[in-house]
Write a structure and sequence with these properties.
Layout lengths: L1 H23 L5 H13 L7 E2 L2 E2 L9 H4 L2 H9 L18 H12 L3
Antiparallel strand pairs: 1-2
Helix pairs in contact: 2-5, 4-5
The structure holds heme C.
Length: 112
């Protein structure tokens, strides 16, 4: 009986630890990353930007962009890149669906 209680305690501990790590480092599920990848391709982000050694270096490298801005920064910027710099050549992403935008933001803010 004591032994069973011990096993249950260990199981509970593992459960807590794995729950804790996903709370502290939330990562988007793979299908969201995949959908974001398709948006990046469709919108030609890599003709200007580089992500993990892929793409052009005309615009800032996005490989660690999630460390530079908080998650909530991305959507308003992506909807209107000319907000801060009217001369920005970056095309606004105002034609994305809400779900596409959420997937793209989840992807970008996890590039760290
Ligand atoms: C025509 C070139 C071009 C394209 C295409 C483009 N961008 Fe940009 N982007 C820029 C430039 C230039 C900047 C630098 C800041 C500015 O001018 O607005 C920038 C800035 C950014 C930033 C902020 C960078 C920083 O260091 O703060 C993000 C995030 C970003 N772009 C994401 C994207 C994504 C995602 C796509 C595709 C959906 C995309 N861009 C497509 C030119 C482009």
């Amino acid at each position: 009986m004591q032994r069973i209680a011990g096993i249950m305690a260990v199981g509970g501990l593992i459960g807590l630890v794995s729950m804790g790590s996903s709370l502290f480092r939330p990562e988007p599920p793979p299908e969201r990353i995949q959908r974001a990848g398709m948006i990046v391709q469709r919108e030609d982000c890599l003709t200007c930007h580089r992500i993990n050694n892929e793409g052009d270096d005309f615009a800032p490298d996005l490989s660690r962009i999630g460390s530079k801005h908080p998650a909530e920064w991305f959507k308003p910027f992506l909807l209107n890149p000319q907000r801060d710099d009217p001369d920005s050549p970056m095309p606004p992403l105002d034609h994305l669906t809400d779900e596409e935008m959420a997937d793209l933001v989840a992807f970008l803010s996890n590039l760290k």
